[in-house]
């Protein structure tokens, strides 16, 4: 896959001028990773990492070494933007959840691009505002003391943004293990709550596909 193909996958670069897009092609660095490979860490250079194929898990390690997921980044999304503006990464890591291809834009090259086309900076601000809302919502979920309440709120949120009307279902965007980390619990506990929800007739679960039953809304609306 050539660099020019990446640009069309990334909303951040949608409004670049033709001159900006041509210049961007010369700045991007392509890398491929296998599942489980470390993509970036606190020891990495300051860089914007754009996922063009696959998924990247972004997480922190707590003082006790426990992993806390910040977000899952899929095709067309990106991470590392804060480090383009003199913030330093001391705790955040990114690993490939599947076979993953990324484009890397180093800090110095990003600022060169800004001199050619300011639109990328404006797009970055807009997309970062959306990401901030998502992170705030995760913090709200984690503020709920009970894990089952967190799961209910998460399923409601996912239904509102990713409901597939044709299949009458929603699809979990991550594995059970990663979702458990995102919700601040263990995979065993989360699996138990899913089974409990099924037993109560609230949902049907088929691997990552979840069908929300009418009884769910009767209980929580």
From TrEMBL:
Residues 145-216 form the HTH crp-type domain. InterPro entries: cNMP-bd_dom (IPR000595), cNMP-bd_dom_sf (IPR018490), Env_Response_Regulators (IPR050397), HTH_CRP (IPR012318), RmlC-like_jellyroll (IPR014710), WH-like_DNA-bd_sf (IPR036388), WH_DNA-bd_sf (IPR036390). GO terms for molecular function: DNA binding; DNA-binding transcription factor activity. The keyword DNA-binding applies. It comes from the Bacteria. GO terms for cellular component: cytosol. Keywords: DNA-binding, Transcription, Transcription regulation. CDD domains: CAP_ED. The keyword Transcription applies. This is Crp/Fnr family transcriptional regulator. It comes from Limosilactobacillus reuteri.
């Amino acid at each position: 896959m050539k660099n020019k193909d990446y640009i069309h996958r990334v909303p951040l670069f949608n409004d670049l001028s033709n001159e900006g897009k041509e210049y961007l092609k010369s700045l991007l660095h392509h890398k491929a990773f296998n599942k489980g490979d470390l993509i970036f860490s606190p020891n990495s250079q300051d860089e914007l990492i754009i996922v063009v194929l696959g998924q990247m898990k972004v997480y922190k390690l707590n003082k006790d070494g426990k992993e806390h997921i910040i977000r899952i980044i899929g095709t067309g999304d990106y991470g590392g933007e804060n480090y383009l503006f003199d913030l330093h990464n001391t705790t955040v890591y990114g690993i490939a959840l599947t076979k993953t291809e990324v484009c890397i834009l180093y800090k110095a090259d990003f600022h060169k691009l800004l001199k050619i086309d300011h639109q990328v900076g404006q797009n970055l601000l807009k997309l970062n505002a959306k990401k901030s809302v998502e992170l705030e919502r995760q913090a709200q979920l984690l503020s709920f003391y009970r894990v089952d309440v967190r799961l209910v709120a998460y399923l409601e949120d996912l239904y509102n943004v990713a409901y597939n009307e044709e299949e009458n279902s929603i699809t979990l965007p991550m594995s059970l293990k990663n979702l458990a980390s995102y919700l601040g619990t263990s995979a065993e506990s989360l699996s138990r709550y899913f089974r409990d929800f099924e037993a109560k007739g609230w949902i049907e679960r088929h691997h990552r596909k979840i069908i929300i039953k009418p009884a769910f809304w009767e209980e929580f609306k």
